[in-house]
Amino acid sequence: MASLLNIVSVSPTTSSSSSAANFHSRHLLAPTFSLSFTRRRIAIRAAENGGNEADEPNKQNKTGSSFNQLLGIKGAAKETNKCKVRLQLTKPVTWPPLIWGVACGAASSGNFHWDFEDVAKSIVCMMMSGPFLTGYTQTMNDWYDREIDAINEPYRPIPSGAISENEVITQIWLLLLGGLTLAGILDIWAGHTFPTIFSLAVGGSLVSYIYSAPPFKLKQNGWIGNLALGASYISLPWWAGQALFGSLTADIICVTLVYSIAGFGVGIVNDFKSIEGDRAHGLQSIPVAFGAETAKWISVGAIDITQLLIAGYLTGAGKPYHALALLVLIVPQVIFQYQYFLKDPEKYDVKYQASAQPFLVLGMLVTALASCH
């Protein structure tokens, strides 16, 4: 997860390495140029990277659906409604895993009750983890990936020029500060003497930043980047939910970190739609580094082996029925892997995730319920 900020005029011969140098010379927090220039330059960059295929995004804009952008599907239509554009930047399709992680944490605490206060607490925690902090992460990632998106998805809000630099940066800050504020409120609400949830929110926000932004840009390395992504999407919201209603324990920390390996595998699924842009900008995602054929097996291996390890742990912990339920939930995932993902990971990535991921997250809930007894 190279810049347009210093480009006054763009030539079709401008190299991506030159753009990268320009990018590092400007900081996210220092917007100083006109909005009209921003939109024009981004649009030019999208057309430039499209080369002879510049007409194809236009066809996609005419025939695609703006809803596709929320799902992360290629071929989406360009959106002009500013409210929809802002929502697209936050990628709501990425919120459910975080929301579910909070639910798993609440369940594994053993202290959640179906009363008004506990339900209200969990909803606020889900808002913090999903729309606010995940929205912050996705908006910031789109900002730093705008030139990669100009190749892979030129109809995305930023490369298409549908939203300006200042508007994007404002949205990043509002979502970040909103999420941190909710984290502080939750600590007070839970009566914490140490701001556990606020600390988790700050830590997660920092990981999100160094994942997308230079000089670290963890996503440049497929192994480190996807592991960081998996931990952020599975472990952190689970820990927040558990800390809200109970206390973190060593076994839960270990279990969720193991589950993060499955998150690593899921992250690889999302990398297949960005191979062209990642390769052009030197990002060593797993599909770029190992090729699509090997990468798809690394992905399914990480997802399936992780759950088998968790099932083994539950068996050893005296939870054989929970382990059996988890094994049963692995079966349809394997079926959909062969039916969709292993057949064509680029064509069927969304269909595969829609079919298989519900069984993965149900397995997480089974593990959480086993942990609270």
UniProtKB/TrEMBL annotation:
Q: Does the keyword Translocase apply?
A: no
UniProt keywords (A-Z) are: Chlorophyll biosynthesis, Membrane, Transmembrane, Transmembrane helix
Topology within the bilayer: Multi-pass membrane protein
Ranges that cross the membrane:
192-211, 223-240, 246-269, 323-342
Q: Where in the cell is it found?
A: Membrane
Record's superkingdom?
Answer: Eukaryota
- Matching InterPro entries, A to Z? Chl_synth, ChlG, Prenyltransferase_related, UbiA_prenyltransferase, UbiA_sf
Q: Which PANTHER family match?
A: CHLOROPHYLL SYNTHASE, CHLOROPHYLL SYNTHASE, CHLOROPLASTIC
Under NCBIfam families, the record lists:
ChlG, chlor_syn_BchG, PRK07566.1
Stated name of the protein: Chlorophyll synthase
